[in-house]
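Retro notes
What went well: the complex prediction finally ran end to end.
Inputs used:
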Amino acid sequence: MSVIIDRRLNDRKKSAANRERFMRRYKAHIKRAVTDMVAERSITDMERGGRVDIPVRDIAEPSFQHGQDGDRETVFTGNRSFEAGDRIERPDGQGQGRGKGSAGGKGDGEDSFAFTLSREEFMQIFFDDLQLPRLVRNVVGEIKDHRWQRAGFTQQGAPTNLAVARSMRNALGRRIALTASARKALADKEAVLAANEAATVGEAPAEAAEHEREMLQDEIRELRRRVGRVPFLDELDLRYRHRVQVPRPASRAVMFCLMDVSASMDERKKDLAKRFFTLLYLFLTRKYEKVEVVFIRHTDDAEEVDEQKFFRDPKTGGTIVHTALALMRDIITERFPPAQWNIYGAQASDGDAFGADPEKSRGLLEEQLMPMMRHYAYVEVPDMGSRLSTLGAAYRRIEHPHFAMRQVHDRGDIYPVFRALFSEKATT
Amino acid sequence: MGDQAMYGHHPGEREGGELLSTGSDWSFELIEKYDAAIRDVAVGEFGLDCYPNQIEVIASEQMLDAYATTGLPIGYPHWSFGKSFIGHEHAYKTGMRGLAYEIVINSDPCISYLMEENTMPLQALVIAHACYGHNSFFKGNYLFRQWTAADAIVDYMVFARNYVLQCEERYGQEAVEQVLDAAHALMDYGVSRYNRPKKLSAQAEAERMRSRAEHEWQRWDPLWAATVPAKARAEAGPASTPYPPEPEENLLYFVEKHSPRLAPWEKELVRIVRKVAQYFYPQGQTKVMNEGWATFWHYTILNRLYDKGQVDDGFMLEVLQSHTNVVTQRGFDEPGYGGLNPYALGFAMFTDLRRICENPDDEDRHWFPDFAGTDWKPVLDFAMRNFKDESFIAQYLSPKLIREFRLFAIADNSDEDALLVDSIHNEAGYQRVRKLLAQQHDRDGRLPDIQVVRYDRDGDRSLTLRHRRFRKRGLAADYADVLRHLQRLWGFTVRLETQDENGRIVQAEEVKTPTSAVARVRV
């Protein structure tokens, strides 16, 4: 007789461990592939898996095999017109090939071992050795927030936490358990008594029967008392909902995107800025449970807008940077108290600023905003020349461990800049 | 190519049996019903001798898992299995390759995996193919009987897995991986063809290992190690007698027994790889026969069910469609040609054997006088039990099949500047084509002949391998990596000599450390 077993519910990820070993072993290859993908891909499209090709020879498991040289015969199928003794040109590129290449059609250059990285794996490698600055301290060290969490039931507690249904269930169980034998005896006796009475209906009760009946009635009374003595609700039955306080790391982050949208910011610059913002956003979403984004654009005055407007809507006007910083400060005070939010700022500008504005902005940023920030990154997207702008010059004097600035000239610069921004801070 | 109608089933009168089911949905009750009906035919009518069956229904991801460990239900952890898993997974997910309908394990009870995505007719096909076809082959074929222990393999793999995990915990993943990598490189050389292995037993393995550790422990003598000068020790042995006395073809065995460097646990890992290699040794040599046998039987059994009226036309259509896909053989110049399809060749050969028995013509009587016109069942049974691909083809490939497959041989000689058509499917070529095709399925011809010829026990402890070159065929380029792996296991210099066709040593190379290049040395 055959045994038939349904294994579909068994573990399906048996190979996950071996897969992981493979990935670890060829990490260098995979990282290189990811870096290539990053360079090619649009960043809004970044968050998905990707195909990795590793040259077969790099991962080959060697073994002793015959080479292609020497003499051999090979049998094939499907002869159409060959006769014994015919001579056939060697197929090109196969050198001393066995002829298999001609038929197998496998000769498409270097073979590669292709496989697919899942989105998670891709992102994991993408962010691999970036450390979010001061994150550890924030999550583990400075927990300021707690929340209550259910933790089953206890036998002691405040009356408000009484779990009524649970208590009654216990009481019922206890009553059944404690009175079971008495009730059974009671039922038996009552049945005997009833039978007894039925048998003697109409007859003058004999004395012995009378006596027996009284005995029974006594016993019944005693049993009823026993049942009655078991309390309806006992101290033992009571259960209280148990709640414990668990620390909650501040797992929320808000990211401020500040951008100069004055006329001098052309599409190319906006595009660079967008990529930088996206990258930061991706990075934060990976580290925090919840990430809010606030877009602030400014010309000569600042306003909070949605993403669409932020990147698309044209606006004309001059450039006054500090209005944006002031707006950011107001929004933080109003909506994102620093004790509960990890605040990140990213500012993109071509650096054009005039008069007192750069100095004023620097003061506002350094004195009022920086103390509240986890990190603030300023990315300058200059015109083709790379001389430091007026705003950049002012910002450069900010000396704060969580402040970083860089110039970005084209797409290829963004990723390294981004890495540099964070990896260098990780050591502080 | 290969017109199926030629091997076609010739239905007799259909009997008015009761249909087992209709439609494509399967259920566990139906699988049980079909299994019983198939067993009635396979065992009851045709007398197949099988291990008990254990049929397991799995999902497609689990099938991928099963692929990765080459079909064993359990394997020790190693990155190469991850690689094979990733490869299969990628091919499957990108639609380049479908999954096999089944995997069957040479174990007792015989475990077969059925995929849940299959329809009922496919499940029935798989049951007939794997649970009765492959199963009876595993139980009957001499190679499997000699080389594998169906009742012990699953236990042994559990032991192996636990042992590897334990070693990883104690000595680190990397150390274990190095040994396994190196042993895997020599996996093809882990079999002693002329010594049958002892029966496998997980319990005996554990016991043997314990005593090995104990022996090491007792033998350790700190006084000896600390006081007797190394030189004196080296001289203490008898003056160099050549060792091994006879060349040793089982490189893994030699390493396990004699490596001067490996710790006992490392030797144990080598042994595990060797045992796994041994388990798979018959499979590589019986692909044509094994698949042909299983295909022949699913075809025969299911047609019998149809004749008995137990399955309907829809069922047979689906079965035949899958069957035809499996036994398709393309010509060398057709797209999708991937060499000889073992299913096609094996199925055609067994079917042809039956034909020769039942319905021989003059040619058959001339070529196969021993059995043409006799009862087919004993003839097929004998063939299944006593041959491997090479000898099976050499013995049974008929001229008729050579014509049908239009087989031809191409000679590729290094001193000719063109390929030569050696022989084709004609009277002059039958014997030659058959011989060459048989050779092509011979393991000894596929693997270079490399053996241990010298272990310099009393000198520098170097190990010398000899490659006996055959028909000027050299080694593929990655032999250097294999030598380095071997060096890692051996711990001392490893040398490779090449002996030409006339018995002269024409070249010698050596590797001194696991990372150094292979250096030519004077012969």
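What we learned: The longest strand of chain A covers residues 145-154.
What to try next: split runs per interface for comparison.
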